[in-house]
Amino acid sequence: MHVEPWLIQTFCAAIFCIGFAGVLIRRNILVILMSVELMLNAVNLTFVTYSKQLGHMGGQMAVFFIITVAAAESAVGLGLLIAMFRTLRNVDTDQIQLLRE
Amino acid sequence: MDISPVFFFLFAGLAIACSLMVILKKNPVSSAFALVLVFFSFAAIYAMLDAHLIAALQILVYAGAIMVLFIFVIMLLNADAPSFDMGRSHVGMRIAAGVAAVALFGVFAYAFKNTAMIPPVGEFTADKVAAAGGNTRVISELMFSEYILPFELTSVLLLGGIVGAVAIAKRKLVNTQQGVHHAR
Description:
The structure holds 2 protein chains of 2 kinds. Chain A is an all-alpha fold. Chain A has 3 helices and no strands. Chain B folds into 3 domains: 83 residues, Four Helix Bundle (Hemerythrin (Met), subunit A) (Up-down Bundle); 42 residues; 38 residues. Chain B is built from 7 helices and 2 strands, in the order H-H-H-H-H-H-H-E-E. In chain B, strand 1 and strand 2 form a beta hairpin. In chain B, helix 1 runs antiparallel to helix 2 and helix 2 packs antiparallel against helix 3. The longest helix of chain B is centred in the middle third of the chain and has 26 residues. At the A-B interface, helix 1, helix 2 and helix 3 of A face helix 1, helix 2, helix 3, helix 4 and helix 6 of B.
């Protein structure tokens, strides 16, 4: 039973590109944050694949630290989202246009 | 890599379908629940790749803590009632984003397919990890010896994250003659 490593890495690239498209096409900040989490997860799986392929634990240590950074990032990001909702009563990125007026 | 192709393609297909649902569903609650399924499929693939600690952390931190935070904020803001995007038309932007994503995927797939197989550089082959007491034990020993400085810096990062989140999200305190009261 065998799965080529490049197949797993291509699968990660697919998830990364889906997250990338999500950041570009969506205007709801919540969904944009979710797409960023998708991209972070795709990179994590690439790290683990290389860690297994190369027999080196550095990849899995990197994933551990990326998970910590992702947790801190989503806490601060959702705090920013709440502050934005309190000011604009909206979570739509098109409504951020204070500098245009 | 000697993992079961049936289960790999099952979980990979589930992850791709659910992540498409994350970015295409109108309702943020549907997106959040699709994202939970993506995290679980990733945890399964981590477990197949012998990264047992990472698989457990994936479920605890992502599917547990981060998703609870997301769903809590969705409910708190009541943001799920009307949908904001997709209805309005920025069709050109959406097509351009799709083309950019597909092109990026093409570049990645080409690069990964045509990279020569690198021989293993580290000493942690599957047999040696099993002999040393398993994945979790090996990672723990590395974390408290070779990677002790990044580990300690992580705690500083988390402290900064806590302080930042509280400072941004709390309501401003306004000093008045009568004392402190909460302003909107």
